What we know:
The protein has helices spanning about 5-15, 20-35; strands at about 1-5, 45, 50-55, 60-65, 70-80. The chain is α+β, with helices and mostly antiparallel strands. The longest helix is centred in the first third of the chain and has 16 residues, at about 20-35. About 20% of the residues are buried.
Amino acid sequence: MKAEYGEAVKRALDHAPPAVRKAFFKQIRFLERDLRHPSLHAKKYDEAAGIWQARVNDDWRLYFRIIGDTYRIIKMIPHPK
């Protein structure tokens, strides 16, 4: 599988702290290899819309859809606690 993301995610990465950017790319590599990787804690977020959620780190989450053989990352935001 491969991952792709658009301008909204690129903007979020531009404004994120360096540690979050580094963690994002590490988690993307894990996602491309194994959706069930333990550090991702990937789960269905909105079943009706087909949106999944995964951890970037303790404080940030990424949201994605699975389209064919691609993980389409749709947003990355601080985790609302």
